[in-house]
């Protein structure tokens, strides 16, 4: 196959995943929350089981007026939703779907690049908050910066633990080095990574930067129409990305029955299962207070990640 054709197929596949998987997760969230909370509304649009609910939401966003506040920094204000989406697109390029090079771009330092790119999320939050010329947005942005900068530490430490166990920073290499007993050995790191990942994408109960009951809608308050939809799309892509990274780093990625032929299927099943858990957590737990959020990070997650890192060093030294 010519190099240009191979590159084109990989780019098209990643863009398709970038656009389709978040919509699937968004539709699933409508249905899961409707069942868990006894809300019948999302079950009616389009007839059978409300299949057109997501289409109706999309049409609603397209029809809404695109408003830019008079005192806003227009360039930064309009650029922020794009910056919010960009890191997740880069991460999806790195996520291996199956063995045999079934990944858009494999790098020896893939994990390092993924963690670095995820840190751009705080830039998008601050851009939207500052440029909106709204005090509620600014307060949401400050909360978001404190939360994202704090939770990056346990996220990186837990990822470093599994990278040290595998002896590589390559995401396909980590999956190849994975063994079933890591489900027990690296379980604390997996839990820390998953919780910190929820905080990084600002999902409940870590939605303090949005806090609609007190900040209107935080850093997204002044956004309407498609620009607001881009932020929602970034949230759902974030769900897919955190689920995919947790799958690759801690759940063995494509490992499962007959992985050479069905490896991509096991990866997707694990990703969707973790996405369901993320939705389930949103329905089940109330929003944390700011002090509870910071206490969880610095007094529980960081010490746990450090202890797991020490344990990994000890085990690797003895083996």
From TrEMBL:
Entry keywords, A to Z: Cell membrane, Membrane, NAD, Quinone, Translocase, Transmembrane, Transmembrane helix, Ubiquinone
GO molecular function, a single term: quinone binding
Pfam families named in the record: NADHdh
Main location per the UniProt record: membrane
Record's keyword annotation contains Transmembrane helix: yes
Localization per record: Cell membrane; Membrane
Catalytic activity: a quinone + NADH + 5 H(+)(in) = a quinol + NAD(+) + 4 H(+)(out)
Protein's membrane topology: Multi-pass membrane protein
EC number: 7.1.1.-
GO CC terms, sorted: plasma membrane
Highest taxon listed in the record's lineage: Bacteria
InterPro entries listed in its UniProt record: NADH_UbQ_OxRdtase_su1/FPO
Root EC class: translocase
GO terms of biological process kind: aerobic respiration
Keyword Oxidoreductase: no
Residue intervals passing through the bilayer: 7-26, 75-97, 109-130, 151-175, 181-199, 228-251, 263-284, 296-315
Function in brief: NDH-1 shuttles electrons from NADH, via FMN and iron-sulfur (Fe-S) centers, to quinones in the respiratory chain. The immediate electron acceptor for the enzyme in this species is believed to be ubiquinone. Couples the redox reaction to proton translocation (for every two electrons transferred, four hydrogen ions are translocated across the cytoplasmic membrane), and thus conserves the redox energy in a proton gradient. This subunit may bind ubiquinone.
Family according to the record: Belongs to the complex I subunit 1 family.
Protein name: NADH-quinone oxidoreductase subunit H
Taxonomic classification: Bacteria, Bacillati, Actinomycetota, Actinomycetes, Micromonosporales
């Amino acid at each position: 196959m010519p190099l240009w054709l191979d590159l084109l197929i990989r780019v098209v596949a990643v863009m398709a995943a970038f656009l389709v998987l978040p919509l699937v997760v968004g539709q699933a969230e409508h249905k899961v929350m409707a069942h868990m909370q006894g809300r019948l509304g999302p079950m009616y649009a389009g007839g059978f089981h409300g299949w057109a609910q997501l289409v109706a939401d999309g049409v609603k966003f397209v029809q809404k007026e695109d408003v830019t506040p008079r005192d806003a920094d227009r360039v930064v204000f309009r650029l922020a939703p794009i910056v919010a989406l960009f890191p997740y697109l880069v991460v999806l390029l790195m996520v291996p779907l199956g063995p045999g090079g079934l990944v858009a771009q494999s790098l020896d330092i893939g994990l390092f690049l993924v963690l670095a790119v995820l840190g751009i999320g705080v830039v998008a939050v601050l851009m939207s908050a500052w440029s909106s010329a709204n005090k509620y947005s600014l307060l949401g942005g400050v909360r978001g910066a404190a939360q994202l900068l704090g939770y990056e530490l346990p996220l990186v430490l837990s990822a470093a633990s599994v990278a040290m166990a595998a002896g590589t920073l390559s995401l396909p290499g980590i999956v190849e080095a994975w063994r079933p007993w890591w489900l027990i050995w690296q379980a604390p790191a997996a839990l820390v990574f998953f919780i910190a990942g929820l905080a990084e994408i600002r999902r409940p109960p870590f939605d303090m930067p949005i806090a609609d009951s007190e900040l209107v809608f935080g850093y997204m308050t002044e956004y309407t129409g498609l620009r607001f939809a881009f932020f929602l799309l970034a949230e759902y892509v974030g769900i897919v990305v955190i689920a995919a990274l947790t799958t690759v780093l801690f759940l063995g990625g494509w490992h499962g029955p007959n992985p050479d032929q069905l490896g991509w299927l096991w990866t997707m099943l694990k990703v969707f299962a973790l996405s369901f858990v993320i939705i389930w957590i949103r329905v089940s737990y109330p929003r944390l207070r700011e002090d509870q959020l910071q206490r969880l990070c610095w007094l529980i997650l960081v010490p746990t990640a450090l202890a797991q890192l020490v344990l990994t060093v000890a085990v690797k030294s003895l083996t």
